[in-house]
Write a structure and sequence with these properties.
Elements: H1 7-22, H2 27-52, E1 58-61, E2 72-75, H3 77-97, H4 108-124, H5 128-146, H6 152-183, H7 188-194, H8 203-221, H9 229-236, H10 239-244, H11 248-262, H12 276-296, H13 300-319, H14 324-353, H15 371-386, H16 392-403, H17 410-437, H18 454-472, H19 474-489, H20 491-498, H21 502-506
Antiparallel strand pairs: 1-2
């Protein structure tokens, strides 16, 4: 049992109250502490990734009570991968924030650390009750971050965000109560063993609870028909907050992958592949709505938000094929879309700050400072997000199309992916030409920005560099993701690693 597993939760959990009590009136100190914590989190995440890279499933039993009797954290290839992605994104977004956005309201850095604690906990937890707890931690922190800096529009979006997530939390409790009533457990590994044993008379209650959980995770993942909260929320949130929120939708996708392969996969008896008939059409509809939103967007922030919705449609539609090949392709696309989506929100903020009176509206305006540099950054991000060659979005969609070749819905699936990609390309082309190309023909220009936003540029181009690295190292990365997908589908190995046999526990044996 490695104590390193708890560090991604423990570090931000300890730093957040320190920031509240000791650094709330000293912004420089708060920035140093917060940045140091994010660097440490990245180091810990990389160490855990190395530890999980041999295919082992590692556990951490809190209080030395083994699963399913106590709280257990579980580290495998998938959770380690998500921890590294979160740490990379958090560090680069924080660099953008400390260029000035963090000073627009109080307690930004403490809330930021609480947010990371909740996200990392959701990726590591091995049972659904604690998943609910970590959901609430990250959501409470996100409420505060959402309204950071104030403003009427931001407050309205924040209220909508709070309401929809309170509904989701209530449904979460109802769903896990229904599942617990027929299985007697909320531990994920134990649930995988108990679900096939549920009596026929209790199947309706079990499956209703599981489908309610699918609805809850769909809210987190912004999937149709519960996607309506995301465009307004992300478009109006502070740029670094919206960029960090790019990982929030992936928490919902991660939970869908974990639950509906582990507990409701091939070995679940009457409940086998319960999510498949619902998830695939909903995801394809989400993709369509996101693509149409990109095409119809009137503001750059809206375009970025609908691009995130479209990317979630692609990701979840690929997951819904429920094969190791499709999951590996989906995980590659997950990495790409998180980084590219976050980059778009940061670019939006720099564009809006340089166009007073126009902000991020997709309208022709006078030239603004750093137009060529922002145009280049937007061009690279748009290529990546729309899936054009040669960047990681193109490779991700190639992997997805290849994984879907043998599926019964392959023709329709290919048509949806390629058709919506065309709509997204048109939407990005329209936005870029309006903001950057047409502005070069205006006789006047906005005054130059007094600040150069050095850290903001570092953050944006580092995120763009990450998408380039995904492209350059696509070969070894896809091999790792193939092994990750195979491990996720090897549910027996997961449950054997997490659950200590009851006779050993009663005899006083030490947990593994």
């Amino acid at each position: 049992m490695s104590h390193w597993i708890i560090f991604p939760i423990l570090l931000p959990a300890l730093m957040a109250p320190i920031l509240l009590m000791s650094a709330r009136f000293d912004m420089v100190l708060a920035r140093i502490f917060s940045l140091a914590t994010c660097v440490a989190l990245l180091g810990v995440a990389i160490r855990l990734l190395v530890a999980a890279s041999d295919g082992a499933v590692l556990t951490y039993d809190l209080g030395n009570w083994p699963a399913p009797f106590g709280i257990v954290l579980v580290l495998d290839r998938l959770s380690a991968l998500m921890l590294v992605l979160t740490a990379v994104l958090a560090l680069l977004v924080l660099l953008f924030a400390i260029d000035g956005d963090d000073a627009r309201g109080r307690h930004f850095h403490a809330l930021y650390q609480f947010q990371l604690m909740g996200i990392n906990g959701a990726f590591l937890t091995g049972d659904f009750f604690n998943l609910f707890v970590f959901f609430e931690v990250l959501l409470i922190a996100s409420y505060g971050l959402m309204v950071h800096g104030g403003g009427t529009n931001r407050l309205k979006a924040g209220v909508q965000y709070v309401i929809i997530n309170l509904v989701g939390s209530s449904l979460f409790l109802i769903a896990v109560s229904m599942i617990y009533s027929v299985t007697g457990t909320l531990n994920m590994a134990d649930l995988a063993r108990k679900v096939p044993q549920v009596a026929a008379g209790d199947q309706a209650l079990l499956q209703m609870g599981a489908l309610l959980l699918l609805l809850v995770f769909s809210i987190k993942a912004a999937m149709v028909p519960v996607h309506f909260w995301l465009p307004g929320t992300y478009a109006r949130a502070p740029a670094p907050v919206a960029a960090l929120f790019a990982i929030m939708t992936k928490v919902g996708a991660y939970c869908i992958i974990r639950l509906y392969i582990l507990a409701f996969g091939a070995d679940a008896g009457d409940a086998s592949w319960l999510a498949a008939p619902w998830l695939l059409p909903a995801a394809l509809f989400t993709l369509t709505m996101g693509a149409l939103g990109v095409l119809a967007a009137r503001h750059l922030g809206q375009l970025a938000a609908f691009a995130v919705i479209a990317s979630m449609g692609v990701l979840l539609a690929t997951v819904a094929l429920f094969t190791p090949a499709s999951l590996a392709a989906a995980l590659y696309y997950l990495l790409h879309s998180t980084l590219a989506g976050a980059t778009l929100f940061l670019i939006t903020d720099l564009v809006a700050s340089r166009r007073p009176g126009h902000a991020d509206a997709l309208s022709v305006a006078p030239r603004f400072s750093h137009l060529a540099l922002l145009a280049g950054a937007f061009f690279i991000a748009a290529i990546a997000m729309s899936g054009m060659p040669p960047l990681s979005g193109f490779i991700g969609k190639l992997l997805i199309l290849d994984a879907a070749r043998s599926h019964p819905t392959a023709i329709g699936f290919w048509a949806m992916i390629l058709g919506t990609s065309l709509l997204i390309i048109i939407g990005f082309g329209r936005a870029g030409s309006t903001l950057f190309w047409k502005s070069t023909g205006e006789p006047d220009s906005f005054p130059d920005m007094p600040r150069r936003n050095t850290l903001s540029w570092v953050s944006i181009f580092a995120l763009l560099a990450c998408t380039v690295l995904l492209t350059l190292f696509a070969g070894p990365l896809t091999r790792y993701l193939d092994a990750t997908a195979a491990q996720v589908f090897d549910t027996g190995r997961y449950t054997d690693a997490v659950l200590l046999p009851l006779p050993q526990f009663l005899d006083g044996a030490e947990p593994p």
